[in-house]
């Protein structure tokens, strides 16, 4: 990516187009009943999840990225060659090197567009949106494609009934562009982490990756291991704090928000936060019942569904919130 710094005042940033890619295979709670000791009623009551999408036939994270990115570009009315930078948020990349983003640029025909992967687990899409926005606001880029994409089924222990009921695969994409209106874009952003609790959610490769404290290792490497109770408590508290801190910093109220788009971790967490914050059902977007927890993809998938349904308009205040492994959490408050 090569672009001289802009000598003009910082431009605004608009979300020009969004995209979505989910696998065709639907794995329902009733399917899981045949795989592990669980039930549809138990899963729905505790998580709100009824089904999730799972990749089959060799479909990879890169494949989902390409489909979502092409749709976002089409909706933005842009060509891949218009892109200056592509950012892929994922914890299930194709490989450690090269980055999934770099291979995506080649697939799209966007060479020599800049490319990078970011690893922030479920906070990934929100963090990538902030990074992309800052590149554009600084004048270092004009058009950036952001993706959150996961194939979590590759790192799921399908014998662990506490985790396999949660996760799904998918990708969400957004194309961000410079805009003449400086009021458009992010008005508040934050990214945080607390690695002191990393052992509550991890994916070990070797024995040395097993924490002294946290969720107990279940004997299968390269699969997600989670202390559900601790992650639940973390998410309930942090989600509310993220929203309150953004409102306090900007002087806005919940009435000013068109919608809050949170990471889809657990419907009970989301409903608890909604009630305590005084948000109406329409102001907190939830689709976990159809996709499960798709980690870095979840906020991007939600954003696309809202944009595609025409529920978001220029001038709307939209808050994106992510919380995930690391532990990490982040916020991106947009004026569209």
Describe this structure in words.
The chain is α/β, with parallel strands linked by helices and 336 residues long. The chain folds into two domains: 12-179, Thiolase/Chalcone synthase (Peroxisomal Thiolase, Chain A, domain 1, 3-Layer(aba) Sandwich); 185-335, 3-Layer(aba) Sandwich (Peroxisomal Thiolase, Chain A, domain 1). The chain is built from nine helices and 13 strands. The protein has helices at residues 29-33, 40-47, 61-76, 100-108, 124-138, 228-250, 267-277, 288-291, 298-308, and strands at 12-21, 25-28, 51-54, 85-89, 114-118, 143-151, 169-179, 185-193, 201-202, 225-226, 257-262, 317-324, 328-335. The strands form four sheets. Strands 1-7-6-4-5 form a five-stranded mixed β-sheet, with helices on both faces. Strands 8-13-12-11 form a four-stranded mixed β-sheet, with helices on both faces. The two termini are 26 Å apart.
SSE layout:
Elements lengths: L11 E10 L3 E4 H5 L6 H8 L3 E4 L6 H16 L8 E5 L10 H9 L5 E5 L5 H15 L4 E9 L17 E11 L5 E9 L7 E2 L22 E2 L1 H23 L6 E6 L4 H11 L10 H4 L6 H11 L8 E8 L3 E8 L1
Parallel strand pairs: 4-5, 4-6, 11-12
Antiparallel strand pairs: 1-7, 2-3, 6-7, 8-13, 9-10, 12-13
């Amino acid at each position: 990516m090569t672009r001289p710094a802009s000598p003009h005042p910082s431009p605004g940033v608009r979300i020009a187009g969004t995209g979505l890619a989910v696998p065709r295979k639907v794995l329902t709670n009733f399917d899981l009943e045949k795989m592990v000791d669980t039930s549809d009623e138990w899963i729905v009551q505790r998580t709100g999840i009824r089904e999730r999408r799972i990749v089959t036939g060799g479909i990879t994270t890169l494949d989902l990225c390409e489909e979502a990115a092409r749709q976002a570009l089409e909706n933005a009315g842009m060509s891949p060659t218009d892109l200056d930078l592509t950012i892929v948020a994922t914890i299930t990349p194709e490989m450690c090197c090269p980055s999934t983003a770099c291979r995506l640029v080649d697939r799209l025909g966007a060479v020599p567009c800049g490319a990078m992967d970011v690893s922030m687990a479920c906070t990934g899409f929100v963090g990538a949106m902030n990074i992309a926005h800052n590149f554009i606001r600084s004048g270092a880029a004009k058009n950036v494609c952001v993706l959150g994409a996961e194939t979590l089924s590759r790192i799921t222990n399908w014998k662990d009934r506490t985790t396999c009921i949660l996760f799904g695969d998918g990708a969400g994409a957004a194309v961000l562009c410079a805009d003449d209106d400086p009021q458009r874009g992010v008005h508040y952003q934050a990214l945080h982490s607390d690695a002191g609790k990393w052992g509550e959610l991890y994916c070990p490769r070797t024995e040395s990756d097993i924490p002294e404290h946290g969720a107990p290792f279940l004997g299968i490497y390269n699969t997600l291991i989670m202390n559900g109770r601790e992650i639940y408590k973390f998410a309930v508290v942090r989600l509310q704090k993220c929203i309150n801190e953004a409102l306090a910093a900007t002087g806005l109220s919940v009435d000013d928000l068109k919608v809050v788009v949170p990471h889809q971790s657990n419907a009970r967490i989301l409903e608890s936060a909604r009630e305590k914050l005084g948000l109406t059902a329409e102001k907190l977007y939830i689709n976990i019942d159809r996709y499960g927890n798709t980690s870095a993809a979840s906020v991007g998938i939600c954003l696309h569904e809202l944009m595609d349904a025409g529920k978001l308009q220029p001038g709307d205040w939209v808050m994106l919130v992510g919380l995930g492994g690391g532990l990490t959490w982040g916020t991106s408050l947009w004026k569209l």
